[in-house]
Design brief:
Oligomer: single chain
Number of strands: 11
Largest sheet: 7 strands, antiparallel
Strand content: 25-35%
Distance between the termini: 31 Å
Helix content: 10-25%
Structural class: alpha+beta
Radius of gyration: 23 Å
Length: 220
């Protein structure tokens, strides 16, 4: 497993050491109401912002040849990069290989301190997963509704005569991995190898896919 952070329009950095644990989650959101006969009542209103966090170490130069260091970069270089992404609100792609963590994120918190006699820097980092917000005019909403009805009628009138022999395309979104795509579109996560085999020209590593990639999906 390796952890990479790629800022929008910038160069990718690799975290030199893996954390012992990585935490991912979100809290449910509730609206509170005061009702005379019932008292305070809370009703669910969707989910909160997803977060990913961990505590780690940027090893000092004295440790750069140690076996547990994945790819050494001077701590000061990494600290400056993380502080810049945090302070400027830079949108980044966070990828953790061998997992389904492949999200567009922002650095919401980064802090730490130098420790020991090796120049190590112990840090705590927290990311929030970016959520796309779309705002439409009334006219755009009407056109969208009309297009959906038209598309639905078109699909009904064009039934395939060769079920099981056609393919389709899918655009990778933030948070996707091949297993998750196969589970959603093909019904079994274990069919991710079929997607990989159809897209070897685009996927160099089965653990590395990126938002915006258009993949060919086999018939269900």
């Amino acid at each position: 497993m390796d952890i990479y952070l790629t800022p929008s329009g910038g160069s990718r950095i690799q975290f030199p050491m893996l954390p012992e644990t990585l935490t991912m989650g979100a809290e449910a959101k509730f609206m509170s109401y005061s009702i005379i006969s019932l008292g305070d009542v809370k009703l669910p209103r969707g989910k909160g912002i997803k977060e990913i966090s961990w505590s780690g170490k940027f090893p000092g130069e004295a440790r750069k040849n140690d076996s547990f260091v994945r790819a050494f970069t001077k701590p000061d270089t990494l600290i400056k990069a993380m502080e810049k992404y945090r302070d400027k609100g830079t949108q980044c792609t966070l990828l953790v290989t061998d997992t389904c963590i492949n999200y567009t994120v922002y650095v919401s918190s980064f802090k730490g301190k130098y420790t020991g006699g090796h120049g190590d820097f112990d840090y705590d980092v927290k990311f929030i997963i970016a959520t796309e917000i779309k705002i439409y005019t009334v006219g755009e909403l009407k056109n969208s509704s009309s297009n959906k009805r038209s598309s639905s009628k078109s699909k009904k009138s064009k039934k395939s005569t060769k079920t099981g022999t056609t393919t389709r395309t899918y655009t990778v979104k933030s948070g996707d991995c091949l297993w998750r795509i196969a589970q959603s579109l093909l019904g079994k996560g274990s069919r991710y190898t079929e997607i990989y085999n159809l897209n070897k020209d685009k996927i160099k590593n089965v653990n590395l896919i990126y938002p915006g990639q258009v993949l060919t999906i086999p018939a269900k």
